[in-house]
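<given_protein>
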Amino acid sequence: MSEQFVAELEERIQARRKTTSPLYQTILAGKATERLLRTFVEQRWPIKSWWTRNLTGIACRMDDLDIRRSLIENAYEEEFGALSNSKRHVETFEDFGRAVGVDPASLPNLELFPETVAVIEHNKNACNNTNVHFTEGTTSVLLLMEGQPPITDKAGNSMMAVMRDAYGLPEWGYEFFKHHASNDGDQDGVSELEDEHTEPLRAILTRYCDTPELQDRARASLERAIELRHAHFDAILERAYDPSEPVFRYRADTV
């Protein structure tokens, strides 16, 4: 029954995946302007900077040693990049920002959209509030993010490929997308790291989200998270995109 429940959650995530958002469709189509990409970085960065704190908020409540180790390993990779011979993943996102004209030093102090704040607060409450059962955060934050289907266009080009080929970013500018729902087509657009990181989440939900009440709460939390995320995506597009502006193309003097 629990395995069927997890499959149901993943079907829902698939149905409202990132690529159903006009924001991601615009970026993947190679139509993004500099202002849109800069705003994308500025409003996505604070959510990403909370990721390991959300992750460890679940990990610290895991009695199962193997699952706890898997989550801690995930956090270690995110904070150090040591397993992928990269660097801190948020730093690689900041490098992407630098490539599109964002000063990383400005990111902690920028004004956030209300929709961005709403996503952050939902994630913090679901993962770090010990009065909320950890399966809610596992479902609506960790599985929603790690279990995201490939971010690819209709032709199968990944976000990484689009950043490289359409926008002309140098490798240091698109490295973030090597590890986050994007990779070359021979891996179907999903990195090996994300495959590894999703399996413990399925194990948590199969083992611990085992009553109708917990499952109902997890479903409700996921639905709220999906709606908040899409409102966040829509806000970025609506406030930062004007198709009359030039499409972004990387220039060395952008940095």
